[in-house]
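Example protein
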Amino acid sequence: MEDRKIKVAHIIPSLEIGGVEKGVMLSVDELNKLFDYTVVALTPSKFTTAVYLSKKILPGKKNYLHSVLNAVNILLAYKPDILICSLWKSVPVTLVYKIFRPGAVVVGFFHSAKTFHLADRFFFHLLLRTCSFIAVDSNATKQFVARFAKGKQLFRIPYIFQQEMKAVTGRGKGAIIQFVFAGRITSIKNIAASLKLLYLLKRHINFNFHIWGESDGDHKNELLELVTELNLDNEVTFKGPFSPAQTSDILSQYHFMLQLSKAEGMAMSVVEALMCGIIPVVTPVGEIPYYIRNLQNGIMVDDCSDDELNWAADRVLSIWRDEDLYNKIRKNCLSTFDAEEGYCVNMEHMLKKIYSDN
């Protein structure tokens, strides 16, 4: 490796708290020990920008078109050795930059085992054609992307971070069961199914369900209506957005995570829950079936039909009422990723390999 650090730019659409953005924020300091690593966010978040301006994260503009031009100007001035592009809204920046720097080395970083809409699908294929190398966050994403990637080298960069995570203190006598969701509040996360699961539990046990994160559009209002319809107003609280630095303190308050998603990549929030000893109640989407073993370190709900939700409610109750079983599963959660190399190690290997080969 040369005396000067390899210059790496990573484009993300925003500084909102989703799994992709959170991972970038958690890794930027560690990666800057090894590389000249700069993150360019197209649009800022009023919640996160103030926290991260001191790091090598450059927030963009509120207007999308303005932010694309701004990002291209930043890249032209920065002249990265390697450009990483995450998520479809970042792709136009890469395309324009490649007009000015046709020889630029681009890594297309993919984070999901499916595309969600026409624009996502369109830019997914454009990025595959434009990029020089491919990175994926999970085995599930790898299998999906590999179907379309022809002859391009592919790297797996799992969203596992070596954070100082506080473990849940345990259930304790007379404890009220605490459920949590932490992530972007969208229809894909299927929080509505989690609310229906809790409705089934309400007749049997007292609980709280805290929903952490920012909402896309009107989806929060739809969920609030469902909360009232299911008579869960006293149990369900929307706690609002949070910064990555708060994750451990927040998650350590809870016993179970509810994330009955319709689609996922690595599902970083589930990974973090496991690292805190929280038992996840999840669907077998994305990477989740690769690391959740049903009734050993989580509860796997095959679908969100009435029968499956009733089965899941019974499993939650049986685990909660058996303290030995609860503690056994909780211990399994904590050890899930003991043998797994994390995001920064794999990112380092990829960047050094790409740079040495070019």
Remarks:
- The longest helix spans residues 306-321.
